Recover the amino acids of this structure.
């Protein structure tokens, strides 16, 4: 943070941030000075140590969600954070200055590609103690998505067969581990180079989606977690039997096709959850779940981080480091 004094003597507090002023390609990301965000009465201000990078960041950068979320510009991207609480709002209890926290903040607000971010106190949870900030910033959005898809929506049960598409990705790498922990039989798709990785994470069966059609080699799946959409989702319907569930994070499954199979499902958007972040932190700290880091970039190199994410080939998570570890 830099403190400037205006000609009138008023103190102007500034910070470094990655912002966009218009929707566009990677060039739209600008590393610049931005005003220090002020917490409201229910908020905390977090000194960002690291910010996770997710595909939604570049989708928003490109304007993909502009109809749903009409952001005022300039917009600070990034909805995954690990850091230290630096200021608390007047009505906040249970979170204190100096707490190390992690969060998936509200996507309708300015994000965490910055030295500071303001987050609702109800949306931060204690950071997993066993993780560095870089690792912790990789967790909230992807892990909450996997958790909510498997447990809140699909109600995955012990002994059920679950197909996790894109098991080597951010969401998939957590989904495999959560499903295994819950006692499910886990099947994951990835490319051949990632077979050993997804098996290490807990996959009981692996399908190389590039050399095999998963619907030709699998049957009787109780739950599909779809992170790919399109024809991958289409081809997943044939695996569903009576009582099966297909939940997607990228496209709404056809209700008639679900009904024809006797199945149910839908599309969902991940929601912030302090309670679920707490449960996920426990699984991480007891060694049940590990965090897979693909790469770490300095905040100023967000363009390179987005380019990496946009390849669709990340193994686990991409992180922007704001405070060097
Ligand atoms: N609705 C929501 O709330 C929500 C929340 C989170 C994420 N999402 C969306 O979910 C999608 C996945 O997110 P993510 O963070 O997991 O992405 P990611 O980490 O960028 O996914 C990369 C992984 O996808 C794998 N992959 C690519 N094409 C594949 C295919 N056809 N079949 C199987 N695996 C494939 C790659 O594996 P290989 O290199 O082995 O091919 C790579 O490991 C994104 O579109 C994201 O925007 C939505």
């Amino acid at each position: 943070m830099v403190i400037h004094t205006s000609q009138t003597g008023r103190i102007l507090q500034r910070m470094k941030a990655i912002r966009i002023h218009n929707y566009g390609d990677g060039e739209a990301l600008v590393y610049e000075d931005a005003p220090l965000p002020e917490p409201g009465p229910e908020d905390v201000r977090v000194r960002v140590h690291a910010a996770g990078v997710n595909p939604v960041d570049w989708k928003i950068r490109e304007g993909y969600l502009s109809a749903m979320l009409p952001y005022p510009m300039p917009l600070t991207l990034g909805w995954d954070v690990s850091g230290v609480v630096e200021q608390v709002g007047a009505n906040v209890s249970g979170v204190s200055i100096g707490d190390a926290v992690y969060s998936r903040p509200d996507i309708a607000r300015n994000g965490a590609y910055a030295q500071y971010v303001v987050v609702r106190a109800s949306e931060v949870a204690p950071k997993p103690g066993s993780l560095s900030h870089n690792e912790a910033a990789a967790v909230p959005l992807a892990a909450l998505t996997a958790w909510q898809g498997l447990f809140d929506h699909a109600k995955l049960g012990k002994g059920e067969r679950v197909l996790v598409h894109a098991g080597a990705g951010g969401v998939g790498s957590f989904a495999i581990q959560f499903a295994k922990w819950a006692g499910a039989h886990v099947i994951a798709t990835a490319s051949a180079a990632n077979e050993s990785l997804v098996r290490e994470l807990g996959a009981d069966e692996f399908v190389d989606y590039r050399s095999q059609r998963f619907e030709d080699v699998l049957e009787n799946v109780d739950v599909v977690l779809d992170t790919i959409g399109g024809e991958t989702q289409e081809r997943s319907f044939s695996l569903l039997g009576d009582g099966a569930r297909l939940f997607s994070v990228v496209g709404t499954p056809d209700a008639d096709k679900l009904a024809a199979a006797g199945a149910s499902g839908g599309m969902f958007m991940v929601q912030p959850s302090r309670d679920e972040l707490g449960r996920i932190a426990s699984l991480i700290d007891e060694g049940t779940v590990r965090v897979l880091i693909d790469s770490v970039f300095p905040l100023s190199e967000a363009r390179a981080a987005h380019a990496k994410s946009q390849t669709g080939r990340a193994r686990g998570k991409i992180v922007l480091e704001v405070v060097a570890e």
Notes: The chain has two domains: 2-139+291-321, 142-267. The first strand starts at residue 2 and ends at 5.
